[in-house]
Structure formats: C-alpha cells, structure tokens
Amino acid sequence: MRHTRAHTGNRRAHHALKAANLSKCSHCGAAHRPHHMCLECGYYNGRQVMDLGAEKAKRDARIKTKEEKIKNELGIVDTPAEQPKETKEVK
Description:
This protein is an alpha+beta fold and 91 residues long. The protein has a domain at 20-74. It is 34% helix and 9% strand. The chain has 2 helices and 4 strands; from the N terminus they run αββββα. The chain has helices at residues 5-12, 52-74; strands spanning 23-24, 31-32, 43-44, 47-48. The strands form 2 sheets. The chain has a two-stranded antiparallel sheet. A two-stranded antiparallel sheet has the order 3-4. Strand 1 and strand 2 (31-32) form a beta hairpin. The radius of gyration is 26 Å and the shape is extended. The model has no long low-confidence stretch (mean pLDDT 88).
C-alpha cells in the first residue's frame, strides 16, 4: 500500500535527534557522558579508573615506532628542516 507524504512525515516527526545529556566531572570539572569515565582525567565515580597520561605515552611510542618502520622500508633519511630566510620589511 502506498505511503503518502503526509503519513511518512507524521512517522518521521519523532526521528529528531536530542541533545546529549552531560554530567560534570567531580575531579576536573569537565563535561562527560553520564555513567561514563571522564575523557579528560580518567576518573569515574570519584576514583581513577584509567591513567590517561600513561595511555597517551604508550600511544605516542607506538605511533613513533610505526613511522620509523615505514621510513626504513621506504629508505627515507631524516633531514633537518630548513630555517626560514629573513626578509626585510618594506614600508
């Protein structure tokens, strides 16, 4: 059976997205999803559940080793970046 535009619109009237409810972190004050760990400090319910500093360090090390592996496979040699030349201002 055919769905008229009016009936389709009436059905879709309830499909609108709602704004996310956010809670305030008791440790750092950042906004986070309710019943979820704070993504800024790693605390949930007043206790630290994840050390975000250590996780970031592990991630950075993993990315660095991956970049070095790719450079070695491609045979790219690191060269120091050129410093910009000084230019005289003209008035």
